[in-house]
Amino acid sequence: MTGKCIIVMGVCACGKSSVGELLAKMMNATFVDGDDLHAQANIDKMARGEPLNDADRAPWLSRIGDLALEFNNQNKTVIIGCSALKKSYRDLIRQGNQQVGFLYLQGSYELILARIMARKGHFMKQNMVDSQFATLEEPTNEPLVVTVDINASITDIVKQALAQFNALGF
Questions:
Q1: Domain ranges in the chain?
Q2: Could you give the residue ranges of the DSSP H alpha helices within the chain?
Q3: Which one of 9, 70, 92, 99 has the largest count of C-beta atoms within 10 Å of its C-beta?
Q4: What is the pLDDT of residues 37-82, one digit of tens each?
Q5: pTM of the full structure
Q6: Burial level of 59, CB count in 10 A (0-12/13-18/19+)?
Q7: Class of domain 4-160
């Protein structure tokens, strides 16, 4: 048995945590919310409505990559919710670990904005949606990436993702 990691990625409010939790349950894996791995300074910055920059994100992405490798080395599977908006971020997470797949939760700006407006008590704010979409580099021609449209039920999203990962042999 080989350990592996699936990063559930996408912009804010695309369903990373909800999908990740169900995916982990269906795969008998561990779910880790990447938001919990942010330094407090990053959380404070986002709470003020300030987008993170690459320097803010670098240590966070390294922690996520280290966690993925740790699970892989223990022959365990982990599902991690992480925006992973840029290819360079995904490459950093993949570094030294061939057992990392990405589930890209793709959704329209309008759907994401509606979800953000419905949230209460989360550090992400409406004005950060624009920043997220401006930063997003959709994963194309990258290894072990599955894309699922989020305009479906969480169960259907997870079933589609599992079918696509199985088709890739992952």
A1: 4-160
A2: 16-27, 40-47, 54-73, 87-94, 109-118, 127-135, 154-167
A3: 9
A4: 999 999 898 888 787 889 999 999 999 999 999 999 999 999 999 9
A5: 0.92
A6: middle
A7: alpha beta
